[in-house]
Amino acid sequence: MIQVTNLTKRFGEFTAVDHISFSVKKGQIFAFLGPNGAGKTTTIKMLTTLLLPTEGKIEMNGVDPTQDKDGARRSFGIVFQDPSLDDELTALENMEFHGILYGVPRKLLKQRIEQLMKFVELWDRKDDLVKHFSGGMKRRLEIARGLIHHPKILFLDEPTLGLDPQTRNHIWSYIQDLNKKEGMTVFFTTHYMEEANRVANEIAVIDHGKIMIHGTSKALQEKTKTHTLEEAFLALTGKEIRDEVAGSSDQLRMRHRIWTRR
Amino acid sequence: MNTIYILWLRQLKRYVRSKARMVGSLGQPLLFLVALGFGFGPIYQKAGGGNYLQFLAPGVIAMGILFTSVFMGIEIIWDRQFGFLKETLVAPVSRVNIMIGRTLGGATVATIQGVIVFLMAMVVGFRPTSWLAFPVALLFMFLIAVLFTALGTAIASFMEDMHGFQLIVNFLIMPLFFLSGSLFPLDNLPGALATISHMDPLSYGIDGLRATLVGSAHFGIPYDFLVLSILVAFMMALGGYLFSKIQI
Questions:
Q1: B-chain residues within 8 Å CB-CB of A254?
Q2: Would the pLDDT of A262 be above 50?
Q3: Does the beta-carbon distance from A74 to B160 stay under 8 Å?
Q4: Crossing angle, helix B95-124 and helix B52-74, to 10 degrees?
Q5: What is the maximal distance between C-alpha atoms in chain A?
Q6: Which of A85, A92, A96, A155 is within CB 3.0–4.6 Å of A126 for a Cys-Cys bond?
Q7: Element (H or E) spanning A149, and its range?
């Protein structure tokens, strides 16, 4: 479903993603793990046509996202790491906006919106402006929104960040269900190792822009001679603490842009 | 079509919901109408120009539209910072359509603001010489609005944040306004200023408004319309192109 070869992204001197290659099969749930600033989000941005790669090839659902952007965009849905709702619109309007952009037929759209908003327990708040929502509520709404159009590939960039365990379980069970019923391929990043261990069929660990290892959770533990995925992860990426939140690559990029003033 | 409509609708909803901004952006035109309209009125009359408020009002209407529309275009930077832009950029629809929808939405808002300034001018004492040409005046308002919303979009496609906003206000919007014949007649200007004001796209919009509202023209309605239409087409194409190239 996704085939990546020698994918590279440089921002000036800084190499955020360095010749990575991997593949994700149809119907798989694929976890893309790595410390902050490792290159996860940059990779997702290249896969989802938001950023052009410096080098390398991507094939997604049979098309090259750098060539046939609209073709690629039709095949995936994405829940971004940082907020992407319109605060000045209501929850319902945000959902409708998405559905119409993705060409979901009116009747089905109404049905799905109600179903999904009930599922994330936001239906009774549907006419409230999003700016009055808490962080967790916004997150739930974004996930619900990403599921409206039942994409072939679903990208989730740290989807469950800031959600309580109940909500996390609830949402994952819905995604796993879609994965089984519709064969939806799922590509996600997370910092919760037990989550990756539980839901992912396959895991890749990336650090400093390079893929360190690729395989099932079990295979990763065997190779690193550890007993949990968390231990395996730490064995691979070391214990030093990385830049928080924005991710060093984003900051470097910003700095690069500020100085070069495109 | 649906894409254009939903983005148009979004701009309108946001406008209706932000009353503070709506009212705030009317302060400046009102100040111009009152301070300049009445302040320069006697001198203008003495110089044989007639009623200055009648001359000034179309210029101030255009100013209201200019400011609102450039800002509506530049708003993309907010969307970028608040993250909403990504949501539209990954959607499986042509980015050109997204840009068209946004621009038409912004332009509609700016045109509404223009009509409000028009009504304010009426309160202050402005009277259009004929209501017959009012629909044509509306068309000119809309053309001005589309042109400058698209310009704002084109600029915003380059900008990461609002730091450069002041630069745009002082080196683009202000000169466009002051050099356009909004405040003074374009006849018998000194050479350099005449050349510059003939190159200012807003001059043609204001001339069109003046021709339709008070019946006095420098270039003439057909010429104004032609120049504006060409510029609108060009700016939409440029804005659409730059918008479709945005990377995040």
A1: 160
A2: no
A3: no
A4: 150
A5: 53
A6: A92
A7: none
Write down all domains in chain A, each with its CATH number in brackets.
28-36+50-215+229-260 (3.40.50.300)
Structure tokens at B21: 């901004």
pLDDT tens track for B24-36: 889 999 999 999 9
Q: CB–CB of A73 and B92 under 8 A?
A: yes
- Is the pLDDT reported for residue A70 higher than 60? yes
Q: By the CB < 8 Å criterion, does B96 face chain A?
A: no
B7: closest chain A residue by CA: A97
Alpha-carbon distance B118 to B58, whole Å? Answer: 8
* Tokens, residue A3: 């085939």
Query: Considering only CB atoms, which chain B residues are within 8 Å of A89?
Result: 10, 13-14
Residue B127 near residue B54, CB atoms below 8 Å: yes
| Percent of chain B whose predicted confidence (pLDDT) is above 90 | 82
Q: What residue has token string 């945000």?
A: A94
Instruction: Report the distance separating Cα A43 and Cα A22, nearest Å.
Output: 11
pTM of the prediction?
A: 0.89
Interface test with B, best of A43, A101, A145 (most B CBs within 10 A): A101
Query: What confidence tens digit (pLDDT) does each residue in A17-36 have?
Result: 999 999 999 999 999 999 98
Could you tell me which residue, A107 or B21, shows the higher pLDDT?
A107
Alpha-carbon separation of residue B207 from A102, A121, A258 (angstroms): 43, 56, 40
Nearest CA distance, B98 vs chain A (angstrom): 9
> Residue B185: left (phi > 0), alpha (psi -120 to 50), or beta?
beta
> Do B83 and A103 make contact, defined as CB atoms within 8 angstroms?
no
Extents of the domains making up chain B: 2-244
Predicted confidence band at A124 (pLDDT cuts at 50, 70, 90)?
Answer: very high
Does residue A252 have a pLDDT over 80?
Answer: no
Supply the ipTM of this predicted assembly.
Answer: 0.88
Question: With an 8 Å Cβ cutoff, are A102 and B92 in contact?
Answer: yes
CB A83 to CB B93 under 8 A? no
CB atoms near residue B58 (< 10 Å):
30
